[in-house]
Amino acid sequence: MSVLASIRGRRSIRGFLAKTVDESLITQVLEAAIQAPSACNMQPWEFFVVKGEGRNKLVSSLLEAYHQEKRPPRTQSPVPERYKKRMQTLFEAIKPFAEQTPGFDTWKGSLSFYNAPVVILVAKDKAVDASRILDIGLAVQNMLLAAHDLGLGTCAIGLSLRYEDIIRETLNLPSHLELLLTVALGYPDESLAINQFKSPRVDLSECVQWIEKI
Ligand SMILES: Cc1cc2nc3c(=O)[nH]c(=O)nc-3n(C[C@H](O)[C@H](O)[C@H](O)COP(=O)(O)O)c2cc1C
Fold first, then answer.
1. CA of 20 to the centre of ligand 1 (A)
2. CA nearest 125: which of 178, 168, 181?
3. What separation in Å is there between the alpha carbon of 39 and the centre of ligand 1?
4. Dihedral sign (CA 91, 93, 94, 98)
5. What are phi and psi for residue 183, nearest 5 degrees?
6. CATH, domain 3-70+84-197, list 3.30.70.20, 1.25.40.10, 3.30.565.10, 3.40.109.10
7. Who's near 25: CB < 8 A, 6+ residues apart?
8. Strand duo 46-51 + 153-157: pairing
9. Does residue 11 line the site of ligand 1, with CB under 6 A?
10. 128 has a pLDDT exceeding 90
11. How far is the CA of 157 from the centre of ligand 1 (A)?
């Protein structure tokens, strides 16, 4: 598959088959992640692959915490109006697909990684400057594209970070690391309506300005 085909074909998968992912495939996805460029080749990413019993325990702990309290986002910075609109467009566009998917729930789905058998935690050393999250983002995108190329599905899941303390405690994560993202990885359940959803994008003219003559 060409890079462009993978970029165009990838979409977030929100329902997975109960099919194990071969360790060699997970390794290929991680190998792709670490090919990303990074400032001075610092490679400031840290990954944890959570599967099997570890994954099940993590999901139980997260769902238990969710039933106790539905937590607000970790940061409450205001979102500029034009971006808010795009979020609203997503929520409206995805609604009919969610309604046609029995039992679909974004909160419970996100906190159970949409039943994915593999969860990849993405972290950075707290001592590394926040600007380096850019490098880690590049690695994550490589991961998502490689997974798609290999016939796997992914969903980046940020909602789980509202329960970062639960993830830390359950998996006994080192305290010098901060969690940036969790990624669900597995085989897409193509029978689910939610997985047919393709999110819209704004026109290039809304986010690109060409500067030639000044
Ligand atoms: C940092 C980040 C956090 C996200 N968190 C969630 C999440 O918690 N739950 C979820 O269902 N999707 C989550 N998503 C997926 C986005 O909703 C999705 O990428 C966006 O709507 C664009 O759709 P696409 O990935 O299908 O192109 C997240 C994506 C990113 C990049």
1. 23
2. 178
3. 25
4. positive
5. -130, 125
6. 3.40.109.10
7. 150, 152
8. unpaired
9. yes
10. yes
11. 6
User: What ranges in 115-181 are assigned the alpha helix state H?
Assistant: 133-149, 164-171
CA dist 112 and 71 (Å) reads: 15
Beta strands at 177-186 and 118-125: parallel, antiparallel or unpaired: antiparallel
Per residue in 186-212, pLDDT tens?
999 999 999 999 999 999 999 999 999
Beta strand segments in the chain, E: 46-51, 118-125, 153-157, 177-186
Provide the residue ranges of all domains of the chain, joining segments of one domain with +: 3-70+84-197
Query: Alpha-carbon distance 71 to 54, whole Å?
Result: 23
Q: Which atom of ligand 1 is nearest to the CA of 90?
A: 21
* pLDDT per residue as tens digits for the range 27-79: 999 999 999 999 999 999 999 999 999 999 999 999 999 999 999 998 888 99
Q: Of the candidates 123, 129, 118, 130, which has an alpha carbon nearest to the alpha carbon of residue 175?
A: 123
What SS3 class is residue 51? strand
The confidence band for 157, taking pLDDT boundaries of 50, 70 and 90, is: very high
Output Rg (C-alpha) for the chain, integer angstroms: 18
